Amino acid sequence: MSLFVPDFDDTVVVRAADAELTGAGGSVVNQLLVDSPATGGALSSMRVTLGKGANGARPHHHGKSAEMFYVLDGTVQLLSGDHVVTAERGDVVVVPPGTQHAFAAAPGEIADMLVIITPGVERFEYFRHLERIRYGKVPPESLLDVQELYDSYFGTSAVWEAARAPRP
Questions:
Q1: How far, CA to CA in Å, does 3 sit from each of 39, 42, 44, 97?
Q2: pLDDT tens sequence across 96-109
Q3: 85-101 residues labelled b (16+ CB within 10 A) or e (exposed)
Q4: Distance CA 5, CA 39 (A)
Q5: pTM given for the model
Q6: For an engineered disulfide with 76, which of 26, 69, 111, 140 has Cβ 3.0 to 4.6 Å away?
Q7: What 3-state class would DSSP assign to 105?
Q8: Closest CA to 117 of 67, 57, 54, 55
Q9: What is the mean pLDDT of residues 46-67?
Q10: Mean pLDDT, all residues of the chain
């Protein structure tokens, strides 16, 4: 087991009014809280708010980081490996490095989550990239070119597709 010792000296305080928002006005809003450089690589954190039944992140994995989801409100579906977990307000789900995962608001529900990635990866620019895709400034396949940079590797999951399929 290796021990990671983050390299930062000052307390990090982020005021809600100062946190950058991406996706504002859409069904997925990301409030960027703390990026990896501010914590000496210890963690990255954001708040993700999903509208009713909205898809959050498609199946992907992080090669070096674990990801923790703390449900602040609502109900979320999370893929972790070959399992889909339904988590509600107050629940915590932690996905280990290398494990395929995805998340979305449960059908007909909203979801509001605090997401923490550790060790941290510079995530703010990743979410800015997603915003550029949203506004048609870069094509969606441009994410394939930055997977290694953001330690986010996209995949597919039949289990996730089945869980997210509309019910008659």
A1: 16, 11, 18, 15
A2: 999 999 999 999 99
A3: bebeeeeebebeeebbb
A4: 11
A5: 0.93
A6: 111
A7: strand
A8: 67
A9: 96
A10: 93
